Each structure stands twice: as structure tokens, then as C-alpha cells.
Amino acid sequence: MGHVHGPNAARQPGLHLKYVVDPRAEAAGFASAHGASMASLEQVLADPAIGGVLICSTTDQHLGHALAAVGAGKAVFCEKPIDLDLQKVLAAQPRFDDARFLLGFNRRFDPQFARLKQQLDAGVVGKLETLHLVNHDPAAPPPGFIPTSGGLFKDFTIHDLDMARWLMGEEPVEVYATASCLVDPEIGRQGDVDTARCVLKTASGRLCVISNTRRSGYGYDQRIEAFGATGMIRAGNVERDTVHTLTDAGSTGAPIMPAFAERYRDAYRAQIDHFAEVVHGRAEPFTSYADGVAALTLAEACAWSAQHGEVFKL
Amino acid sequence: MGHVHGPNAARQPGLHLKYVVDPRAEAAGFASAHGASMASLEQVLADPAIGGVLICSTTDQHLGHALAAVGAGKAVFCEKPIDLDLQKVLAAQPRFDDARFLLGFNRRFDPQFARLKQQLDAGVVGKLETLHLVNHDPAAPPPGFIPTSGGLFKDFTIHDLDMARWLMGEEPVEVYATASCLVDPEIGRQGDVDTARCVLKTASGRLCVISNTRRSGYGYDQRIEAFGATGMIRAGNVERDTVHTLTDAGSTGAPIMPAFAERYRDAYRAQIDHFAEVVHGRAEPFTSYADGVAALTLAEACAWSAQHGEVFKL
Amino acid sequence: MGHVHGPNAARQPGLHLKYVVDPRAEAAGFASAHGASMASLEQVLADPAIGGVLICSTTDQHLGHALAAVGAGKAVFCEKPIDLDLQKVLAAQPRFDDARFLLGFNRRFDPQFARLKQQLDAGVVGKLETLHLVNHDPAAPPPGFIPTSGGLFKDFTIHDLDMARWLMGEEPVEVYATASCLVDPEIGRQGDVDTARCVLKTASGRLCVISNTRRSGYGYDQRIEAFGATGMIRAGNVERDTVHTLTDAGSTGAPIMPAFAERYRDAYRAQIDHFAEVVHGRAEPFTSYADGVAALTLAEACAWSAQHGEVFKL
Amino acid sequence: MGHVHGPNAARQPGLHLKYVVDPRAEAAGFASAHGASMASLEQVLADPAIGGVLICSTTDQHLGHALAAVGAGKAVFCEKPIDLDLQKVLAAQPRFDDARFLLGFNRRFDPQFARLKQQLDAGVVGKLETLHLVNHDPAAPPPGFIPTSGGLFKDFTIHDLDMARWLMGEEPVEVYATASCLVDPEIGRQGDVDTARCVLKTASGRLCVISNTRRSGYGYDQRIEAFGATGMIRAGNVERDTVHTLTDAGSTGAPIMPAFAERYRDAYRAQIDHFAEVVHGRAEPFTSYADGVAALTLAEACAWSAQHGEVFKL
Questions:
Q1: What sequence ranges are listed for the domain GFO/IDH/MocA-like oxidoreductase (chains A, B, C, D) (predicted)?
Q2: Which of A243, B180, C165, C193 is a good FRET partner for A4, with 20 to 30 A between their CA atoms?
């Protein structure tokens, strides 16, 4: 993710990308291309000119790096999830200052979804009743990724769980999830699932369905439908182009965006723009440590439900 | 429903609408407008010229009327559901001849959904993995309807349960349903719900989500998305017209079809066309008594799951 | 066209299809299927029970049949064009009563175009400035049709010329047309063209483009775009169904309506419904003899312009 | 246009933006923001480190600046039009080297239109027969702009004339244009028009319609429809986002792109990327001085036709 966030930080007028920390030698080219130099984490944290740190390390390093940066008084942007272990995340929570920690739930920064939220809040379709979130990855990850991923719910569904909380404005009190291994038997052999549906219910009775697959076969399907008392709002997929062909056989059009880097390009930029505001103390982080705790708690509930075939009550 | 099916039978070249049975005097005008005369059920069943009967009475009369017609050797078209009581339906099953009984699951006859099924069967998106069925009524029924309806699942979801079975080609082995009363508190006072989500799972791991509400606020939302190994197929809503307006404020377009009579006009016609073939012994009924039993069983499972907050295993 | 209008008249409650006049013996089956009997034109016109006549004969017979029917005091529905010879049409005009003659410009009855007109008149996009009419036939007519057709402009463009007059609410004062023979060289050998563009200009400066081809290769393309001072309104093509498929290669959808009978099914019905009102003296004909004269005059202007390569001033 | 091209040059890895030439003092901020310094044209042309020049001055200065740059041996990117006076453009032509001069016809670089061209060339719809180009500006320019603009055809339609030549792959031999002043009477008082339609015809009979207005009232309408022997390809408008709302009143969606900077953002970037290749001698300019001559010739033909009400033969 450093290859996504680094260039965005480099082009943000309110930020200056000073250091790249990466044990791999090939990162030097990346650093110099963006006007930065290579350094160790210790050097970075010891530099008083550094106001903020972007943590894009592997998931198992997120929490340690974040704690070190926070300890050094830096503003922190941290890729999700904070950690795969909810107990560790909860234990570390008191050491984080919500005003200085931005969690990488990029979808809240997406202009499409932001527009949907804005219309919902403006009451365009009345009071929200139900929600449908589609999050389908284009193609299954390499087998080696699965054991370190934390499983489908903590690694992938967690984005939707954050979106559900944000859009519903209310915490789920019941969670049901069911899952299958339909895409790649190897994923099953490694103890994970690749296809899932989750249903969340809030205290007021709002219902949210989450649709996940590791492999859509048709691109990166990212859609939201929000149903209110007087209508519905949907944010559709972004298509590669607007060219259509008509023949006697029918119409053909462009595929949807193939993967996250293209689909959420604007979201990733807006997220770093927001981090610049956080670093300079001009904005409260939009997605906080507490949001990370809540989404991880729900992800564990989903995983439990799918494993036991029972509804999980929160 | 007689006002839907009667005219379709009258215009079907293979059928002749001879009698209308209706205790209400005002039905005489309807009968004569379609070239039929009023008669009692006994008269109709005693007439050897009658090859088939369309049963469009109230739900509590369906089974009695169907048994009488079957007993008289007539081909039977019967509106869904056969009955609200699964035990009664199972008990009567031996008295029905599958070759002469057509159940009114109209959606299988819809050209949109038939096209989707045809493409699925042709393997256009590979092996089916998951399904998403949207069935949102435009506006809540009058309060007096609820006590006789059998509840949301038996009255409304039953259509989707039949579609799920048909499209997946495999029986669900697990059912989860959750529901709320968000549309009209009066529905809740009468012991029913108005908003629900169901998740079905088959033995091979296929997942199907059903989305229901009694009141969409934006018309009669009838959509299907079928996700396969290499892509997805969707049948979208039918819009009233193709006229769009563009201004600086954005685009506006026509609403979707407002209700079932318009949306499924072609399906209702195709269903009666098919019944003509059944009457004349030229086709096996597409939707059988056994399909009615299966859908009702699933509807009861959904109702139980929603009531107990637990997964139902079949 | 009798096979389009006859059944629509037979099903119209305000009309009774009593006679079919057709020299071909095979028309007897058609007549009896719609509850009519075969008769000669003389018999029909002598029958005092006959209030109106549908003239669907060949173009060269339209005017003679219409005059005979008008002379017998019948209301007349006449397929376009009245005649290919403008002088004959003008000479006969005094013998027609505008209140009893309906010309077959079916497109004005199309619900899509009627909606567009309604929004234009309601001022949704401000004052109309320009218009774009697309009228592309799916496939070239058989070669034998061309010599009797009157040529592309009188046979085909005439529909668009009527639509232009209706939608602009103002008569063209300048006409430019240019044409090619790109579809079938045989059409060229018979002295006609198969591909054309016309531009009309009114006194107030409104501009209208007409796009015509005898063979689209992708169905029956029937679209209108109306550009006003504050926006635009478009009536798009009607697609066969709403089913779309998405794969990595892109999306595919249904073709547009293949030909006039399907595309204008509702328009043809509405036209006959309107004729029933005309017959019973309850409505002024929507498309009059005078409209036929005006459209034919413009068609001759287009033909002249295309032939001479000059602008025609009216 | 310097504010569009400058940043794109600054971010292009193959270019280094060294100087900004601008008589206005406020340009200094722009220059320093992009790592450049202010200089006179003479200084720039005298600097042997300079390989290429972007000419974004006012139209009346384009040719003089281009000649100076070419004389100094620089590669030249020049905004369109080269000059408003065709005779001056023709006279200067021998002094330009086609291999070192890129004309700013940005639309050829648009990914939407490039995709359409690619599918046309691939024969997806057979041999091209006709073309429809829509180019509607969102809002009329300030009155002061009109006298220096060269008129609608040389200033605005010229883009479409270049696209027509590129897409048809064949030169027009006949041009017809008609125009009105419907948007702003002040434009008429200054001797110009604001609404036009042009029809081009090639020797083989291909037809191209161009639709222009200075004020659409609904954004920057930029569409192409290409009709071939077996189908059609269209490049549609780009919408601001994919969010749609459905209520009983119908659907609403986002407006199309409001203006050229947003709509052609990717095209402007691709154009400068291509200029980098031209500067380094790795590519032939895609849009040449000769293309500028041809488009200007056609623009003069359109202006003449609209003024005289006659067809112009080339």
C-alpha cells in the first residue's frame, strides 16, 4: 500500500515526503523518485521535523509501528486492520489519541459513496431502513496470502462492516454470517472461506446485507444500495469508459474497474489529503482507532457466526 | 387475480372462457365483457365441455376449490399459495396429478427472468455460485389484509423462494431470516413484519440472499443478480419509458413499473398461454404442486428463523 | 399494415371490425379470426352501419380509396402517405373534412415521444432550440419495393418531417438534404438513395437534423433529442429486455427493438383507440390531411435538395 | 490553456518545465509552484537545454511564437488554431517540420474517443458509413471573447472538423452549414452565431453531422456516434458520479462533466505525454500542421456556407 499512499503524500501540497522506511533495497528507487531518502524507523521517529507517519507495513507490524510512532508524538495514518487480535487492539487503545490517529478505511473517502451518504443525510429518500453492500474482489489472492490474512472477515469484510456502521449511524446488535469455499479449494484447505453473506441488525431494526467474494470474474464490484422510507439511493460501479457498441446481437460496453488501485484512486488521494489536515491539527480524523475496534469486533462476530452456524448477539 | 387471468384466458386462442364463478353480483359485467356467463362452481365442474379451471379465489379457498376441480377431472391453474397450512397441503398432495396442476408462480414466466435463466444455463458466466433476489412491494397492503395473508414469508417471500429453487437448481439445506417492522407499526401490532432478509444455503455451498419490503417508496422493485464463476448476470427493473432529461442539476428518468399488474403483464400472459398447453395435454406444468410444497416449506423455515433468531436446518 | 391495424380495431371496445376488403383469398382467414367477413369496397361503403374505414391498401390506392370513403360519409383512417404526387394531394384536399380524416403518422402516438413532447411543452428544458431525429430502419427493403416507394424522402423521411413539425411547433423555411447509396448498390441503380441527412431551419432559427438509413445493422433505431435553453430531453431506444451480463471482457445487453411492429406496438394501438374517438365524433383527428400535405411538401423539398445539392427555400 | 498544460508538463517524467513566459506578474507564482522560473521568449529560445516549447498564448500570437520556436530548432506544441487567417497559415507551412510540430487537437487523445476509433478500425461494426459529432459548450463565453474568437466555426467547430477527418479517414468534398443566434443576442450583434449544424460529405458518400451550441444548459456535451455497415459505436458523456436516486417520481442521476478541463483531463495529460515523445524524437506528432490547415480550410467552408446559405464544394 506504500506504493499507493507514498505518491499521494508526495503530491499533497500540505505534506513533504521526507523518508521511506523499507527493509528492501529496491525501495530506494521509489524513495528517490518521490524526493525522499531511505531511513530506519528510529531515525524517522527521532526527527523532530516529522509530523506524521504513514504505516503501510505488513498487518502483523501495524500495531507495533503505530505504538512507536504515537510514542514519539507523531500523527499516525495506519492501514487497516490495526491488528488481527482484538484483545491486543483493545489493550493498546488507551495509548492512542483519537485526534492524532487516522485508520485506513479508504471507502469512506470515495466520492461516490460520499455522495450517497450526503444524499442519505439530506433525507432524499427518508429515514434509512436497509442497506446492501457489495464488495467482490476481482480475483482470488495468491495462496500464500491466506494464512497471514486473518481470514475473509477480518481482512476483507472489515471494510464493509465499517461502511455499515458509518452509513447506518447505529451499531449492529445481531450478526449472522454464512460462508462457502467456492472459488479455490486451496483457500478451504488453509481453513478460510472465499464467498460469504452477512446480515447485520441494529436495535431499531435496520438490516444490512454484505455480499463478499474473493473472485468475481468481472472486475472489482463495489456497490451500495441504501433503502429509505421514500426511495432508494445507489452508488454503482465505475466503468472503464463510456463506449458502447450496438449490433443485431445486442449491446456491449466496457468492463468495470478491474481492481482497488483504479477504483479507489480518488478515495486514496482524498484520504491522504485528509491526513495532511490531521497532521496540521486542522481536522479530526474521520476514521478513528475506535472505528477500527468496532469493525474488528464485528468481523470476529461474523467469523464466529459463520463457523458455528449461529446468530451472534452483541 | 381473476381480473388479471380472466382477460388473458379470454384472449388465448387455445382457450374459451365459458364461465365466471363469483358470489359478487358485480362480476356479471366482467363475465359478459369477456364472453362468459355466470355459474356456480357445481355447474362448472359438471359441464363436460370444461377442460380446465382457473382458481383465483381467496387463499383459504384455494385448496378446497382445487380438490373439487381435480376430483371432477379438470386441469387446474391455482394461484399461490395452495394453502397457508403446510400439513393440509402435504395431506392433499396424493390427490393431485402433477401433469394437470399448474401453480401460479408467475415470475418463472417473466421474459426478463427467463432470459437470465437461459443465459445461466448456457454457461455464460460459468457455474452459479450466489444469487441476490430483490422483491420490494411498492406500498404496504391495507391493514385488513395482514391477518389473512399468512405473514410476510408465506404471502410474499414465497415467490422468491420458488425463484431461488428454480435458479439454483438445488435445494436449500439451511435457512436464516431476520425481519423488522419498519414500514407500518400496525403491521407489527397484527403480529407480522414488513421488512426482511433471508439467506439460503445449499449442500454444495451456494448462497442466496432474498431482500423483501412491503413498501419501497419507488415502485415495484423486481431484480435478480446471479453470480457465477466467470461473471454475473442481472435482470434489472423495467422503467415506464426511456425519456431522460438533462440539466445542470443532473439527469432525471422515468420511475420503474409501479405494481405487479404492469410489471408482470407479459409473465401473466405467458402463464395462461402455458396453461392452455397443459389443458390440452401438450405440456407438463412448469410449476407443480411439489414446487408449492417446497416453497411453503421454505417459507415456514424462514418464519421460524425470523421468530427464533436461529438458523433453520432442513 | 392491415395486419397491424385490423387486430387493434378488433380489440378496441369502441369499434367493431365488420368487414375486411382484400382481393387476396387468403385474407378470409384473417377476417374470420377477427370476427369479420370479406366484402367488396362497394358493399362496405353502402352499409349504413359502417362509421369508419381503415385504408391500408398500397400507396397508389390510398387517395382513391380515401375519396370513395369520404364520399360515402365515412370517417377515414388512412396510412401515410396520402399519395406520392403532391399535386394530386393538393387537388383533392377540398374534398376532405379535417374532422373526419386521420392520417397514419403513428409516431405521434408513441408513449415515449408523447412523454418527450409533454415535458417540452411543460418547459422542463426551456424554449426549444434544436432537434435531432434518428430514424434508422433495421434492414433494406426488398429491391422490388423501391420503384413503388416514392423514394427515401417520401416513403421514410416523411415520418420525421411530421415529427419535426409537431415538436418544433413551427414550419421550416429552409431545407437541406444530402444522401448516398451506401447500403445496397441495387437501390442506387433504381434511382434511389439509402442513407440521408436533412437539416431544417425555421423562421425563428430553430434547427432540426434528421438522420436516416435503410439498414442500421443493429435494429430499429428510433430516437429523439430535443435541446432547449436550459437542458435537453431525449427519448431513447426500447431494448428487448433488461438483462445484462458482466465478465472481464465487459458488459453485454439486449438488442434494441428489431422492427416497427414491436417498437410501435403501443403507438399503433393508441392510434386506433384515437380513431375510435374520431369515428364517434368525440375527438378531432390528431394528424390531419393538412399534416399530410405539409410533410409531403417537405419530403419533396428534401428530395429536390439532395438531387440538386442546393438548399431549398420554402 | 497554460494552466492546463503547464502542470501536465511538470508531472511528465520525460519533461522538465524550466521556464514560464508570461507578461503578467502573477504568473510567477504559477511558475515557482511547478519548479520553473520566469523568462522572456528570447531567453527560452536561446537556451540550448530547451528541447520543446508549449505555445499557449492568445490565438493571434500562436503563429508568430511557433515560427520563432521552430526557427530556434525547438519542438513545438501549439494550441489550436494556428491562426485565424488561412492564407497566413498556408504561407507559413513550408517553414514547419511536420516531425517537430504538435497541434493541440486534444480530443484525439481522449481515451473514450480513442477506444471508439480503435473499435472502428478493428471492424467491430463494419465499414464506417456516417458519423454524428456532438460538441455543446456548457455556457456562452463572455461577450468580449467573440470578436477575437474567429467566429464559431474557426474557434469551436474546428475541433469537430478535425475529429471528422480523423474518424472518417477521408476528406470531405462538400460542406453545408447553417447557424442561428439563439443563445445570446449580443453574440449576434457582434456578427457571430451560437448554434450550428454542419453536414460533411466525402467522395465515397460518407456523411458526417456536427452539432454545436455555445450553451447547452446541462454541461459539456461531448459525444460521438459512428454508424457502420453492421452496427454502431457510441462514446457517451462522462458523468460526475454513479449515484442514482429512485423515488415514486422517477430516477435522478449526476450531471455530466461541466467543462473541458474536467472532461478532457486525461486527454490533456495524454497529449503532453505524447509531446514528450515528440520532443525526444520517439514519435511522429499525432496531429500535425497539415491537420491544422485542413481543419481551418473546412472551418472557412462552413462559415461561408452558413453565411451564403449554399453548399460549399471543396
A1: 113-234
A2: A243
Interface with chain A: mutation pick from B129, B137, B157, B211, highest number of A CBs within 10 Å: B129
ipTM of the prediction: 0.96
Partnered with residue C167 across adjacent β-strands are: none
Per-residue pLDDT tens over the stretch A204-262: 999 999 999 999 999 999 999 999 999 999 999 999 999 999 999 999 999 999 999 99
CATH number of D107-264+289-313: 3.30.360.10
The answer to whether the Cβ–Cβ distance between B250 and D255 falls below 8 Å is yes
CATH entry, B107-263+289-313, from 3.30.420.40, 3.10.180.10, 1.10.940.10, 3.30.360.10:
3.30.360.10
Q: B165-186, pLDDT tens digit by residue?
A: 999 999 999 999 999 999 999 9
CA C175-C176-C180 angle, 5° bins? 140
Listed in sequence order, the DSSP H helices in chain C are 2-11, 27-33, 41-46, 59-71, 86-92, 111-121, 146-149, 152, 158-168, 185-189, 260-263, 265-279, 289-308
**Using an 8 Å Cβ cutoff, are B278 and B52 in contact?**
yes
Cβ of A245 and D232 within 8 Å?
A: yes
Res. C251: pLDDT tops 90: yes
Say whether B244 and C234 touch across the interface (CB within 8 A).
yes
Percent of chain C with pLDDT over 70: 100
Option in B235, B241, B246 nearest C112 (CB): B241
User: Closest-CA residue in chain B for D256?
Assistant: B250
Pick the CATH number of B2-106 from 3.40.190.170, 3.40.50.720, 3.40.50.150, 3.10.20.70: 3.40.50.720
D218 and C195 in contact by Cβ < 8 A? Answer: no
Q: Which of D181, D205, D221 sits opposite C180 (nearest CB)?
A: D205
Of D234, D238, D242, Cβ closest to residue A244:
D234
User: Which residue, C232, C235, C283, is CA-closest to C263?
Assistant: C235
